[in-house]
């Protein structure tokens, strides 16, 4: 019989931990928490948690009872030796969040749309969502992910990311209680599958099965793709804004994507969008009124005319101390009908703090106020009020005066938010395909992008067994995408296997490796031979790489006629492909500089290009361009991955009429 554990003083050994764990297991406890106390006396004591649902509420209770402590958390029903190798340790909160009242809670609850009749349709959780959030945190440097639930009206799960120092703070901030707050904790340095399937630190029911890549049928909220699109954009911003700052592409891009999508929502579906926004707002509001993360929610709720106090949050972001927050806030605000009074207040505050005024003055001319009213306000800012100066009001700097004068009339100044709009475009290109979240598309697209760790492992297992598609996926992935410049030794392993199977995309990649000297000794002759072989097999991308060889190679390899011919083929076949976007620029340069605008050579090159173009492998009226696209008959039933690779109609936007 195992003796009942008692508190001890002094060093706690692993033997004692194992004994306490065995005792907890015999009691059929769900968790064992070991509490190390330092005040009022040094002592270590075990606490058995019977029910799974009590894990996080117990932590909340411990936090209220003791001031300084360290917790070790174990699941006695699983391999204790594995847990002892790297135990879950949670420290007491250094600076507790006292949770001041941030908004009118009664007004907030009354404003929530009554959607109780849709509760069953709105209640959903999926392994895909949780694993996606897990991967986002892992890829962006977080150490832990707390899965929390907001039960108002309907259950909504959301992730909270944390590092070790503030882990307990984050758990307590989620307000753990019965059916609300934290419900699971994931260590991002451990296996997702192990933690998910064993409920390692979870109060949720243990899943019945684990879905491998694309086996899970993804639920669509309300069975409505438009509402599901809004939910996914909302969660994208919610996740990324925890991990990155307001100056980053992902935060600016995800915020603007959410706002643009939310503005276009069908009015009949805005009640669902409002509920999702308000519940998310409620989950973030402990950051404090005026925090930049709340801004997109406030702007959309204000746009949907919900009676909660969003205006103060919007305005305070416009004159925040952080320049990045101000620019981010102004960019978001520029998508809406701008309030003259809000901008006027922000200008006056920024004026006194010495902040740049250009963005706010740009917004001022976007407001609904009349031209005369705007000019009157700006002229008023240029006047020196002697009484105000005596009271301590600062005079404008010379730069401010210049900005005010520049905006005294409807202006033609450059858009001060252009940089952020460009970041938004880059974000959308990278994270979305059309209207679909790229991770969601990855889950349903038969051609994986290997962004999930387990997708790479599965792909490698298939490739080791000789699966051609998997070999090509890995060859291109390691050559182009792994790390900053690629992992060439790994890439060459799979490239050579693809070459043995005589696949043109592998042959093309090997040619690129020899041309650039990536992982092999540079050999221009071998590169041209391999690329020529791939081009003769009808692989369109090979013509693009051959054009580089003949344009940039040294004599006797350099041949501007061949370079120009292959550039024309590239113009017709691959110019829309993101990594071949320099075709137009290069074709113009070669024609003007190297061919001296010789029409005779131009016509000869066009004729040769037409002959070469006819040799391309065409599938679904488009050239086969990339490693997983069908370049041989046995792969001809593959769907094209890059939908923006359109077959050219032969019309050029360059000043060369016959292209």
How would you describe this protein?
With 659 residues, this protein is of the alpha+beta class. Among the domains are: 14-91, no CATH class; 344-408, no CATH class; 446-537, Tetratricopeptide repeat domain (Serine Threonine Protein Phosphatase 5, Tetratricopeptide repeat, Alpha Horseshoe); 555-659, no CATH class. 50% of the residues lie in helices and 8% in strands. The protein has 30 helices and eleven strands. The strands form four sheets. The chain has a four-stranded antiparallel sheet with strand order 2-1-3-4, with helices on both faces. Strands 6-5-7 form a three-stranded antiparallel sheet, with helices on both faces. A two-stranded antiparallel sheet has the order 8-9. Strand 5 (144-150) and strand 6 form a beta hairpin. Helix 10 packs across helix 20. The longest helix is centred in the middle third of the chain and has 19 residues, at 225-243. Mean pLDDT is 80; it is low at 98-102 and 625-659.
Q: Which strand-content bin applies to the residues? A: 5-15%
Classify the helix fraction into a percent range. Answer: 40-55%
Q: What is the makeup of the main sheet? A: 4 strands, antiparallel
Please count the helical segments.
30
Q: If strands are numbered along the chain, what order do they take across the biggest sheet?
A: 2-1-3-4
Q: Tell me the total number of β-strands.
A: 11
